[in-house]
Amino acid sequence: MSLLSVRDLCVSFPSEAGVVQAVRGVTFDLERGQTMALVGESGSGKSVTSLAIMGLHPENAKITGSVLLDGTDELLTKNDEQMSKIRGLRIAMVFQDPLSALTPVYAVGDQIVETILTHSPETSKEDAWKRAVHLLDLVGIPDAAERARAFPFEFSGGMRQRVMIAMAIANNPDIIIADEPTTALDVTIQAQVLEVLQAAQAETGAAMILITHDLGVVAGNADHVTVMYAGRMVEQGSVDDIFYAPAMPYTIGLLGTVPRLDHKSGEALPILEGNPPSVVNLVPGCPFAPRCPMAIDKCHESEPELTATGETQAGHLSACWRLEETKGLSHGDIFEVPVVRRNELTTLPRDERDTVLDIKNLHKHFPLLKGAIYRRQAGVVKAVDGIDLDLRAGETLGLVGESGSGKSTTLLEILELMKPTQGRIVVLGNDTAQLSRNARRSLRKDIQVVFQDPMAALDPRLPVFDIIAEPLGAFGWDKAAIEERVFELLKIVGLQADHADRYPQHFSGGQRQRIGIARALALNPRILVLDEPVSALDVSIQAGVINLLEQLQQELGLSYLLVAHDLAVIRHICDRVAVMYLGNIVEIGDVEDVYEHPLHPYTQALLSAIPIPDPKVERERQRVVLTGDMPSPADPPSGCKFRTRCPKFLSLDADSQARCVGVPPELSVAGADHNVACHYPEVLRVI
Amino acid sequence: MARYIALRVLNYTVLLFVAVSLAYLLAASSLNPRQIYALRQPPVDPDVIETILRNCNISDNVPLLERYFTWLKNIFTEWNWGCSPTNGSVNAEVSVRVWVSLRLMIIGTLGGVVTGVLVGAWAATKQYKAPDRVYTLASLFVICTPSFVMGIVAQILAVKANNALPWRIFEFVGETGSVDDYPMAAFVDRLQHLLLPTVVLILVTSAALSRIQRNLMLDALGADYVRTARAKGLPKRKAVMKHALRTALIPTGTYVAFTVAGMFVGATYTERVFSFPGMGQYAVDAILKMDINAISAVTAFAGVCTMCGAILSDIVVAILDPRVRLG
Fold first, then answer.
1. Residues of chain B with C-beta less than 8 angstroms from the C-beta of A167
2. Which of A103, A108, A209, A370 has the most B C-beta neighbours within 10 Å, making it the best mutation to test the interface with B?
C-alpha cells in the first residue's frame, strides 16, 4: 500500500479562450521516505498537480480522478474543512517564492506556532513556542530563540525559505510537497536549502514531491522522476532510467539542451525547436509531435499512452508511439545540431584584438541615509569597490556572483557613460568622464543592453516594428531606411517579417527575448551588455537564444559583457569570467582555466553549488557548502571580505588567519590569463 | 516610537502654521468686508464702518502685515481668534460648533469605516458571485448619488415611516426637539435626531471605503501567504480573516485617518439638510459673509484635524505593520 496514490488526475479550468486542460491523467505512487521529482517546463501542469493534491486549486477548477492517502482515504471528495485537517499535518508544502509566502505582519515564530496549534490545540503556547524555536534551530537559523521573534522582512531569501521548511515539518508530516523551493534563490543558498530539505526529510521520514524545472536539482535529490509536457505525463521512472535511458524524444531533447557545467563542447548547444503547445483547445495527437523530428502520421492522429519501456527495470514508463526505435538514441541522433559559423576575428589571439571596454579601479558608492526629517548620511554602501576589467573585440566576458555582489551595478555604471564615483571607464577609446553631451549620445549607439525579463523590458502597447524602430528613429534614420533595417533585424534574430505588426504579448518568452536582442542590435553596436539574458526562459527555449547570441557574435564581431547566475551557461558562452564578491573581483581569467582550476575558495564554492544533471556524478560529488548569507555591503568585514564565510579561513592557523583579517588581498597573477585575490590560493577541483 | 511621533508632530506643527498664515493672508488680501455695508439702506456712516472694521482688525486701511501681526499676537497671547461684525466672536462660535460637528460625525464616521471595511472584505471573498455583484451595484449607486439628495430622500422616507407607524421614530430637524418627561428622554431625543443623518453618513462613507477595501482584499486574497496559511491547515475562512484581512487593513489605516479628519469640515451638505449648525455650515457662511477671521479659524481647525489624522494614521499603520515599526 502506497502512502499516496494518484490515479488519472485531471484538472481543467474554464477561461475566456476555452477550457484550459492543465493536467491530463497524472498517475503515480509515492512511498514513505522517497523523493519523486515532477519535472517540466512552465505550463506543463506540475504546480497545478500539487495544488490539486493539497486541495488548494482555484475554486473554478474541475478535478477528476483519485488521490488516495494511505491507500484508503480519498482526498478529492473532501471539503475545505476536512482537507484542512490533513494539510499541514499529513501533507505539508514549501512554496517557490519565500519573499511572499510568509505573512509579512506576524513574527516567524508565531507563524510556526500557528501551524502547531492548528493541529494540536491542546498544546500550551509555551510548548509550541519552544518547539518553534527548536525547529528554527534545526533548519539552521542562528540564534533561533532570538530570531523567532523577528518578522519575515528581517530575513534574507534563503533564511525565509528555511523558515518555510521549519513550518512545513512542524507537525512531522508524511508528505512534503516542495514547489520549486530553490528557484528564487542564489546558487550557494540553493545548495544550503536543498541540504536542509534533505535533513528535514531524514528527520521526519517523510516522502517528498519535488517540483522543479532544474534537471541538476533532480539528479541530486530525486529517487523517481515524472516528466510532464502539456499537462500530460510523458515519461516516468527511476532517476537513473530517466537520465541514462530516456525513451521519449522530449526527455532526450530536454537532457541534451541543458548546458553542462562539467564540460565545454565548443559547439553550438543542441536545441529543441518550437514552443510547448497551449493547453487550451488541444489538437489531437501527441502534444510533442509538432516539435519532434521523429513524428510520424500516427503521432499527429492520436495520443500515445504511457507504456513500459520493457528494457530496464520495471516502472520505467514512456508515452511514445515509436518507443521501439528511440531506445539508446541520444539527442544528436534525433535532433539536428546547429552549427555556428566561425569568424576570422575569433581565431585571432586575444592580445592582438582591440580593447573595446577598459575599466580601471571602478567604484560605485551609494550614500545610506537615515532620519525622519533631517536626512543625514549614516554610511556608504560600496556596491562596486575598485574593479578592473577589460573586454576585447569579439570576446565574451561573464560576471558571476551572488545577488548583492555588484554585478548589475557594474553594468549600469558602464551603460550610464558618466564619470563614476572613482576610477575610469573607457568605452572604445573614449573616457566617459570627459565626454561631451553629443559624444556621449553618439557613443550610446555602440553599447546596447538586453535585459533579463523580456516581458517587462518591452512596452506592451507598441507593436514589434515600433519597438525595434525606436532606437533608429531616435538617431534620425529616415523612414525607408528604418523599415528596411527592421525587417533585416527580424530576419537576423530568427523571427518572421509578418511578426512586425504584432504586440509583445503574442510572443513566447524566447521570441520576446529575440525581439529584445533585435532592438539592441538595431544601431549596429560594438558592445552588447547582457543582464541575465536567458534566466527567465525555459530550458528548451534558452538553448536557442544562447545559440543565437553566439551566432550573432561570430557574424557581427560583437563583444559581450554578460551577467548570469547559471554558471553552466557562462562556461558555454564565455571566453573569460570574473567572479565578484561584495563589490570586488576575487578571481578572473580564462573560463576553462577558472572552471578547471578554481583558486579562490569563493569560486570553488560557487562552482560546487551548481548541481550537475547527472545522478551518478551528483552522488559522488563533494560539496563546498558556504555557511550563512553574504554580509551587508554597508558594513563589510575587514581585510578579506570573504573571510567570514570562507572554508579555507577556518582551516588556517591563527597567524595565517591574522593576515586574512588585517590585509585585503590584491589580485595577483596565477596563470597565463588567471588572476586571483586570495592570500592562500590553492586549486581544488569541484566539478 | 514616542520620539518618532514627537518629531512628526513638530513637523506638522510648522506646516500648520505656514498653511494657516497663508490662508489668513489670502483671505485678508482678497476679501473686502467693507462691501457688506455698501448696499445698506440707509447708508452707514463711513466713520462708523471704519470703527467697526478696525475693532475686528479687518480694515483694509490698515497695512496687511500689521493686521497679520495683530491677528497672530491675539492668538498667541490671548487665544483670541478675532471676531466679525456680523457673526460675533469666532471663539464663541467655533467652541459651540465643534461639538455639534463631533456629535454628528463621530458615530456616522466610525460606523461607516467599520461597515465599509467589513462589507468590502466580504465582497472580495465572493468576487464575481451574486452577492458581490449586488453589492457592487448598490455601492456604485450610493457613490453616484450626491449626499444632499440622499439626505432629502431619507427625510421623505422618514416622514412616510413616521406617518405609517403609531409613534414618531425619526426626527430630522436640528439636534434636539420637544422633549418628553420620562427618564433619559433628552438622550433618547438626541438619538432620534441623530439616527437619520448617521444612516446617511454611514452609507456615504462606507460605500466609497468598501470599494477600496474590496480591491485591497482581492490583492491580499491572491497573495502567496494566504495559500501558505491554508497549506498549514487553516480553513479558508480563518486564513482569510487572520492573514489576508490584517495585511489588507494597512493601507486602509492611512486612508481612513485622513477621511475622518476631512469629515469634520466636509460634511456641509449633511449639516445643511439636517439643520445641524456645525463646522461645515460655518465654513460656507464665513466665505459668503467675507468673514476673514472665521475663514482663518476654520482653516486652522481643518489643519488640526488633518494633522491629528496624519498622526493617527502613523500610529495605526505602525501598530498594523511591523515593517514600519521596526524597519
1. 228, 232
2. A103
pLDDT one-digit tens code per residue, B61-119: 889 999 999 999 999 998 999 888 777 888 998 898 888 888 888 888 889 999 999 99
Question: Confidence class of residue A362 from pLDDT cuts 50, 70 and 90?
Answer: very high
- The set of cell numbers assigned to A134 is 527548536
Question: Which residues have CB under 8 Å from B222's CB, separation 6+?
Answer: none
Distances (CA, A) of A256 to A36, A246, A332: 22, 11, 8
What pLDDT is stored for residue A371 in this prediction? 60
Chain B residues touching A81 at Cβ < 8 A? 235
Give contacts of B310 with chain A, Cβ < 8 Å. none
The Cα of A115 is separated from the nearest Cα of chain B by a number of Å equal to 5
Confirm or reject CATH 3.10.450.10 for domain A344-565, answering yes or no: no
Q: Does B227 touch chain A (CB under 8 A)?
A: yes
Report residue A311's pLDDT band, with 50, 70 and 90 as the boundaries: low
Structure letter (DSSP) for residue A525: -
With a cut of 70, say whether residue A685 has pLDDT above it.
Answer: yes
Q: Does B311 touch chain A (CB under 8 A)?
A: no
Rounded to the nearest angstrom, the minimum Cα separation between A169 and chain B is 10
Q: Are B231 and A118 a contacting pair at CB < 8 A?
A: no
Which of B224, B233, B322 minimises the CB distance to A105?
A: B322
Pairing type for strands A35-39 and A18-30 reads: unpaired
Q: Which residues of A touch B234 (CB under 8 A)?
A: 84, 88, 114, 118
Closest CA to A220 of A247, A190, A246: A190
Q: Is there a contact between A92 and B231 if contact means CB atoms under 8 Å apart?
A: yes
Residues of chain A with CATH 3.40.50.300: 4-222, 344-565
Ranking A52-66, A134-148, B29-43 by mean pLDDT, the lowest is B29-43
Residue A374 pLDDT more than 70?
A: no
> CB of A222 within 8 A of CB of A201?
no
Q: Crossing angle, helix B90-125 and helix B130-144, to 10 degrees?
A: 160
Q: Decide if A587 contacts A594 (C-beta within 8 A).
A: yes
Cβ distance of A87 and B224 shorter than 8 Å: no
Residue extents of the structural domains in chain B: 2-89, 98-326
Domain B98-326: state its class.
Answer: mainly alpha
Mean pLDDT of chain B: 87
Q: Which triple of cell numbers denotes residue A242?
A: 530517466
- Phi, then psi, of A131 in degrees rounded to 5: -65, -40
| Range of A374-378, B103-107, B199-203 with top mean pLDDT | B199-203
Query: What are the distances in angstroms from CA A586 to CA A423, A601, A604, A681?
Result: 18, 9, 11, 11
Cα dihedral across residues A51, A54, A59, A62: positive or negative: positive
CATH class of A4-222: alpha beta
Nearest to B84 by CA among B292, B278, B296, B285: B292
Smallest Cβ–Cβ distance between B234 and the set A84, A97, A105 belongs to A84
Supply the pLDDT for residue B2.
73
pLDDT: which is higher, B260 or A472: A472
pLDDT number for residue A83: 93
**What is the Cα–Cα distance from A590 to A576, expressed in whole angstroms?**
4
- Nearest alpha carbon to residue A282 among A469, A634, A661, A24: A24
Q: How confident is the model at residue A228 (pLDDT cuts 50, 70, 90)?
A: very high
Tell me how far apart the alpha carbons of residues B202 and B147 are, in angstroms, rounded to a whole number. 11
In this prediction, residues A27-36 reach a mean pLDDT of 93
CA distance A299 to A289: 6
- Full-model pTM: 0.83
CA distance B305 to chain A (A): 21
